[in-house]
Design a protein that fits this description.
Elements lengths: L1 H16 L5 H8 L1 H33 L1
Helix pairs in contact: 2-3
Length: 65
């Protein structure tokens, strides 16, 4: 039973000292404007690609008929 207490104590110490070092997380916490601006740029870029692709498909369908 003693070995389980040692393992449990070691795991507890590791969890309490763990800190995530993520550049993406830091981007949204330290530089909120740049982080959200980048997120919106990516979202609207993907949205624009879908819209223009759909318009191209519709244009091709209208030209065929």
């Amino acid at each position: 039973m003693n070995i389980f207490q040692v393992i449990d104590s070691y795991q507890y110490e590791m969890e309490s000292t763990y800190q995530e070092k993520s550049m993406l997380t830091n981007l949204f916490t330290d530089h909120k404007f740049i982080g959200w601006l980048g997120l919106f740029i990516v979202f609207f870029s993907i949205f624009a690609i879908f819209v223009f692709q759909f318009l191209e498909w519709e244009s091709n369908d209208n030209n065929k008929s």
